[in-house]
Amino acid sequence: MKQFTRRRFAVLAAATGLAWLAAPALAASDVLRVGVSSTPQVESLQIAVKEAKTQGLNVELVEFSDWNTPNAALANGDIDVNYFQHIPFLENAKKQGGYDFVSVGTGTIMKIGLYSHKWKSFADIPAGGKVAIASDPVNGGRGLLLLERAGLIKLKSGLGYKATTLDIVANPKKLSIVALEASQLARALDDVDLAQGYPSFLRLAGENPDNALLFDGVENKIFALQWVVRKQDAANPKVQQFIRIYQNSKQVRASLDKVFGKLYAPAWL
């Protein structure tokens, strides 16, 4: 019942724009509260939680259904650490929200891709076709870079993931580029000609994340997920203990291998 209550609170917070409201059970000082995104990665984290228990560390996962509330919850002290964002997303969040956050550990890095239900190649996409990318600034820029690699658009040089649709200097097919919340991209595939996609959200939508027309790589570790805390908690030994358990657990790696295959890499290695 507690898990259901926390998850329902997360959905409510995302829907209303409110920060996470901590359930009374999370107030215990001996519990490490870890904020995570509700994706298939949770399975590997649950394994780490069980292993932590055997080492005397009590960990509670708090799942969120969006990418804004976990940082608000961390800032409010409702959780102790969150694990869902990469460095560019974190830096943008700190700038926009005024957060005093730091990364204290590195997690997995996921490939993203371009997917289509309608076409088997980029050449098949018709003039005026609709393309969906992530709506947040950083991941939207990452999607635009993939579109450029696919030969569908050309961007101003030197911007990298900071590019926006305003930086498109050539769009020969006159594609209509729409921005959607990242978690909704996989469910938009029937409505668009092409969409940026994430393995976790594709799994949740019942899609096969291996079927991308084009992948980016896992070489650029700037896009690896980070363990993020408030600056004053950077030396929290419970956080470091849990990160070590996650990074060194054979069962955690087996779970990630099973769910994501070659679509991820352990960026801490």
TrEMBL record:
It is a lipid-anchor. It comes from the Bacteria. Residues 1-27 form the signal peptide. The keyword Lipoprotein applies. InterPro entries: Lipoprotein_NlpA (IPR004872), TAT_signal (IPR006311). Pfam families: Lipoprotein_9. Keywords: Lipoprotein, Membrane, Palmitate, Signal. The keyword Membrane applies. It is found in: Membrane. Its main location: membrane. Belongs to the NlpA lipoprotein family. This is MetQ/NlpA family ABC transporter substrate-binding protein. The lineage of its organism: Bacteria, Pseudomonadati, Pseudomonadota, Betaproteobacteria, Neisseriales.
